[in-house]
Amino acid sequence: MIVVQKYGGSSVADTDRIKRVAERVVQVRRDGHDVVVVVSAMGKTTDQLIRQAEEVSGIPPARELDMLLTAGERISMSLLAMAMHELGYTARSLTGSQAGIITDTTHGKARIIDITPGRINSALAEGHVVIVAGFQGVSRDSKDVTTLGRGGSDTTAVALAGALGASVCEIYTDVDGVYTADPRIVSTARKLQRVSHEEMLELAACGAKVLQVRSVEYARNHHVAVHVRSSFSYGEGTWVQDESEANMEQAVISGVAHDTGEGKLVIRRVPDKPGVAARIFTALAEANINIDMIVQNVSEDGTTDISCTVPLADGPRADLLLTALLPEIGAEGILFDSDVAKVSLVGAGMKTHPGVAAAMFSALSDAGVNIEMISTSTIRISVVVRAAEVSTAVQAVHDRFNLGGEVET
Amino acid sequence: MIVVQKYGGSSVADTDRIKRVAERVVQVRRDGHDVVVVVSAMGKTTDQLIRQAEEVSGIPPARELDMLLTAGERISMSLLAMAMHELGYTARSLTGSQAGIITDTTHGKARIIDITPGRINSALAEGHVVIVAGFQGVSRDSKDVTTLGRGGSDTTAVALAGALGASVCEIYTDVDGVYTADPRIVSTARKLQRVSHEEMLELAACGAKVLQVRSVEYARNHHVAVHVRSSFSYGEGTWVQDESEANMEQAVISGVAHDTGEGKLVIRRVPDKPGVAARIFTALAEANINIDMIVQNVSEDGTTDISCTVPLADGPRADLLLTALLPEIGAEGILFDSDVAKVSLVGAGMKTHPGVAAAMFSALSDAGVNIEMISTSTIRISVVVRAAEVSTAVQAVHDRFNLGGEVET
After folding, report:
1. Inter-chain contact B81–A91, Cβ cutoff 8 Å?
2. Residue numbers in A near B141 (CB within 8 A)
């Protein structure tokens, strides 16, 4: 069986930690498995490289920024290969390009379009542990080095696990699994043993930082079983699996996620006529601004307010862009409010259990938290509240659905 | 015309210096030339990476060490490309592999066996400045990343200049050219305007650190004109050229080089019979110990002393190796003396000017310096003296041949 393991930056932050990772890898190898290890750059390396780029260039060209950043994984992966040798195991480190991670040409945010794992397979066949640089690939068209964006190493690992038919993709991180809520906010938050791909996708999209959204998407589409666990302990973490396998225990609610990284953008008194919303969101999309929730109320006096959430960093740019668009669309004004938070309740059982939304809203109301926006999917309910009330809100919702406890039953 | 420029680690030591290098490159570009820039890793990056390797591994596997070290040039080259963009010029950084530097598989000391500059040529044709990672290539057989060894960036630059038919290969360094002697020892040392490939080869092999021996060898074999100059000034440096062009001014002597990095190994009372010397030097070669001067005196009593110089770092190993061989070859003993220095006089005119050796030896004698070993080539005379007397020796020889002065006439 092939096991794919991914170690994040904090797991390989210095040479001592790299040695500890090597020891973990050896254990799996001793059990007779073939091992493919995906590594991130050491600790804060990527941030340091970005800082250097900013010292020489106002807006670093994307191709060169990718070339620069990929140096980070090159260092961690070759050091890990050396540490493996020191323990008596041969290892081969491979860059994204050498490992056959083929992407499109979108520098800084490339998408994997193919995996050609020829070199990985031959290295495994020769008995080596294979170590692959996370977060990077090579573009099919330009043959240039690309990166997958922040957290892209998760995606590398999941994609490799899928392409290699691995039995599991283990994601090692500094927390020991996926929790029913952020334990720093809710002391009784409970570690989940299993969660479905769909639920994890919603949790990740709603602010749970343990896994990157795109990697979960990839895992779902390619049916890859992901095991999220801590690189500092040997306990079981959380399994992220296909719904059929994950939900044998079928809890109605998986957890509460929150996100304080977005702001609320309101376009006031938009004329209620066809094509206006399309014009607004096309403009935002063309500026590469990611929109999350979109809420439009029922029109009353022939105008309506359209609200959406955007990443805080993009807020001022979105504000500027839409203000310039005001005359064309005939709206009254733009408000950008950075002082909000999103709280989301996620659970696959929601589909078949009515009343979840009502219970959530009343929990918030009982806690004195005002709801500013609401948006739902089949397995998620998200609300926007004041940023200052995020802890109260998360705690109240977590309590109402009795999500706490020591271990999931 | 294509100009190849190479900037060493001290020229790109930090982001400010990288910006200054970008400005220099722009000037050449403005003059209408195509420019290919070869860069080393920033400052002490390579040393830091080696230190990290040593933290995880006693003897780092060579393949992985090469993978690690090549991260250094990746960082400097992409930062330089960004700095070029900032000045309004587009640039493409290319790894050794992307630039078509094809080598053998000797990790850590790979030799360039081919250059396939397809990507360089198309990037130049598109109007980009091309920036190539020095010191690295890709092996033809294993497709693994290789390094050319310390100072390998000089070789990268010269090899590219040859393959691209460049008009000149400019080697930027922290000194402004090749001198008649080390200016730290001889205050009247004079910068040479021109020197032939052969002379430079002897000077480099005898301790002049300004150019790496292999790069000069490559330049000679491929008739590449090299211009050694300072990255901190705009003055002319020293041209290293084919003899026909370099020696229009035909000085008898080019300069005095010295080397304190070698020790003297004496094998005492070796039986004077065929095959013994071959046995000794085969053993050293198999242990990958580089021998420089070899001196054997005329045999008297059926035995002879064989002396050679070896790098100081290899001395103890060579001593051990030959001591084990003593019974087989029937010699009396091994002496290793690390307290020596080599002083060499180099000049293409020597060939046609008798009496140079005599003048050099009498200069040393007049200065009270004892000669322990002598070895000559057609354009070089080297002597081994006590390490403590190296400055006296260099100064005396430099004076005797009137090499000093402000500018070469």
Report:
1. no
2. none
Cβ-defined contact of B85 to A52 (cutoff 8 Å):
no
Q: Do A78 and B64 touch (CB under 8 A)?
A: yes
Q: How far away is chain B from the Cα of A76, in angstroms, using its nearest Cα?
A: 8
Please give the structure tokens belonging to residue B64.
């992985």
Cβ distance of A67 and B74 shorter than 8 Å: yes
Give the span between the Cα atoms of A217 and A46, in whole angstroms: 24
Q: Closest partner residue to B78 among A64, A91, A119, by Cβ?
A: A64
Residue B301, pLDDT above cutoff 90 = no
A386 falls within a domain: no
Q: How confident is the model at residue B352 (pLDDT cuts 50, 70, 90)?
A: confident
Give me the residues paired with residue A259 across strands.
A342
Name every chain B residue with its beta carbon within 8 A of the beta carbon of A123: none
Two tokens at A191?
A: 């570690």
Tell which of A18, A74, A80 to mutate to test the B interface (max B CBs under 10 Å): A74
Q: pLDDT digits over B123-169, tens only? A: 999 999 999 999 999 999 999 999 998 789 999 999 999 999 999 99
Answer whether residue A133 is part of any domain: yes
Q: Would an 8 Å CB–CB cutoff place B129 in contact with chain A? A: no
Residue of B nearest to A16 (CA): B56
Q: Does a structural domain hold residue B116? A: yes
- Number of domains making up chain B: 1
Q: Which residue of B has its CA nearest to A53?
A: B79
ipTM for the whole complex: 0.81
Per residue in A134-144, pLDDT tens? 999 999 999 99
Closest residue by Cα to residue A253 from A398, A363, A365: A398
Chain B residues within 8 A of A19 when measuring between CB atoms: 56
* Residue B238 contacts residue B178 (beta carbons within 8 Å): yes
φ and ψ of B175, to 5 deg? -115, 165
Contact B170, B6 (CB under 8 A): yes
The whole domain housing B101 covers 2-174
- Chain B's closest residue to A87, CA to CA, is B57
Q: Between A113 and B285, where is the model more confident? A: A113
Residue with tokens 């901190």: B232
Tell me: the pLDDT tens digits for A156-182?
A: 999 999 999 999 999 998 889 999 999
Q: Please report whether residue B380 resides in a domain.
A: no
- The region of weakest confidence among A97-101, A255-259, B339-343, B371-375 is B371-375
Does residue A176 contact residue A164 with C-beta atoms inside 8 Å?
no
> Which CATH number do you get for residue B89?
3.40.1160.10
- Terminal-to-terminal C-alpha distance of chain A: 30
Nearest CA in chain B to A52: B15
Query: Nearest Cβ partner of B85 from A61, A70, A143?
Result: A61
In the predicted model, what is the mean pLDDT of residues A367-385?
A: 90
Chain mean pLDDT for chain B:
91
CA distance A8 to A257: 22
* Mutation for testing the A interface, residue in B14, B39, B48, B79 having most A CBs under 10 Å: B79
Q: Any bridge partners for residue A286, and if so which?
A: none
Q: What pLDDT score was predicted for residue B245?
A: 67
Does any CB of chain B come closer than 8 Å to the CB of residue A143? yes
